Amino acid sequence: MTTTQAGPVADAPQASPPAQARRRGLGGRLLDQLERFGLVVLLIAVALFFTFLPATSAVFPTSANLRNVAANESILVVVALAALVPLVAERFDLSVGATVGLAAIVTGKLLTSGAAPTLVAILAGVLVGALVGLVNGIVIAHYNASSLVITLGMATLLQGVGSYLTGDTTLLGMPQSLLDFGNLQWLGIPRPVWLFVLLALAIAFVLGMTVFGRRLLAIGSNEAAARLVGMPVSRTVLLAFVVSGALAGVAGILVLARTGGASAGVGAGYTLPAVAAIFLGSTTIRPGRFTVAGTLVGVFFVAISVNGLTLAGAQDWVDPVFNGGAVVLAVAAAAILAKRRLGSAR
C-alpha cells in the first residue's frame, strides 16, 4: 500500500496577492488616471496660475478675455477637426491650412465682386474645400500615395493659386451679415463658438457612433486586418479627406467672418497649431487615440498658455515656440505611452 503525500502548495489554500503587488496595482491605477487626465489637470493649473499671477490677474480671468480667446480659437478648432478625421485612419492632411486660405479667397472674391449672394458664396467656399479633399483622397486612397507628401505638395500648390487669385492683395469689403456672425454674440457667447461646438459634437458622433467612424478607427488600428475582413478602405479614406476639406472650407468662412478679409497665405499658419493640438489631445482622456475631446483640450491648453504669457508681457516669438514645442513634446509623449503599453501587454 502506497501513500501519496500532497505537496505544501497543493494542500495550502490559494494565497492572496502580496502587499507589494497590491501596492503596484494601486500605483498603476493612479498612473493610468494621471495619464488619462494629466493634460486636463495641467490646463486647469495653468488657468489658475495666470488667474492669480499679479501681472495677469486683472485681465486674464475676465469674461471678456475668455470670450475673446474662445472666439479666436474657433477657427483653429475647426481646422483641427478637419485634420483629425483622416488622422484617425493614420493619414495626415497637411493641406488643411492652405485649404482654409483658398476657401476664404474664393468666397471673398464672390462676395466682393457681387457675383453671388452671401449664402451661395459661403457654400462655394465649403465646396472648394471638399473638392481639394476629393483630389487628395483620390491620389492617396486609390494610388496608395504618401499622405504627408501629397498634402504637403497640395498645400504649396494652393498657396500659389491663392496668390494668383488675389494678385497678392487683400480682399476687403465683406457683407455686414457675415461680419456680425464672426464678431457678435448669442446669449453672451460668441457666435463662432456655437458653430465649433456643434461641429465638434457632430464629428464626435460620426467617429464614435457611425459605421464610417468605426471603419476609420479600424483602419487606423490595423489597416491590413481591415482589408482582410472586407472593409472598403480606399472609399473610407477618400471620404475622410472630403470631410476634412469641407471642414477646412468652413474654417475659411470663419476667417472672413472674424477678420473681414482674405489674402494669399491667410490659412498657412493654422496647420502646425492644429497638428499640435491633435497630438497633445492624443495624450489625454483616451491616451493613444485621436479624439475630439482630447483635441479640444489640446487647442485650449496652448491657447490659454499663450494668452496668459502674452498678457504677462511675453514677446511675439513665444507663440511659434510654444506651438512647435507642443508638437515635439506631444509626439514624444505619445511614443512613450505607446512603448509603456506595449511593455505592459507583454
UniProtKB/TrEMBL annotation:
> Which organism does this record belong to?
Nocardioides mangrovi
Signal peptide residues are none
Could you tell me which CDD domains the record lists for this protein? TM_PBP1_transp_AraH_like
Q: Does the keyword Amino-acid biosynthesis apply?
A: no
Pfam families in UniProt: BPD_transp_2 (PF02653)
Q: Locate the transmembrane regions by residue number.
A: 37-57, 69-87, 94-112, 118-141, 148-167, 193-217, 237-256, 262-280, 292-314, 320-338
Q: What segments bear the compositional bias annotation Low complexity?
A: 10-20
- Membrane topology designation: Multi-pass membrane protein
Q: Which domain of life is it from?
A: Bacteria
- Which InterPro entries has this protein been placed in? ABC_transp_permease
Name the segments for region: Disordered.
1-21
Any coiled-coil regions, as ranges: none
List localization entries. Answer: Cell membrane
PANTHER family according to UniProt: ABC TRANSPORTER PERMEASE PROTEIN YPHD-RELATED-RELATED (PTHR32196), RIBOSE IMPORT PERMEASE PROTEIN RBSC (PTHR32196:SF72)
The UniProt keyword set, sorted, is: Cell membrane, Membrane, Transmembrane, Transmembrane helix
Protein name according to UniProt: ABC transporter permease
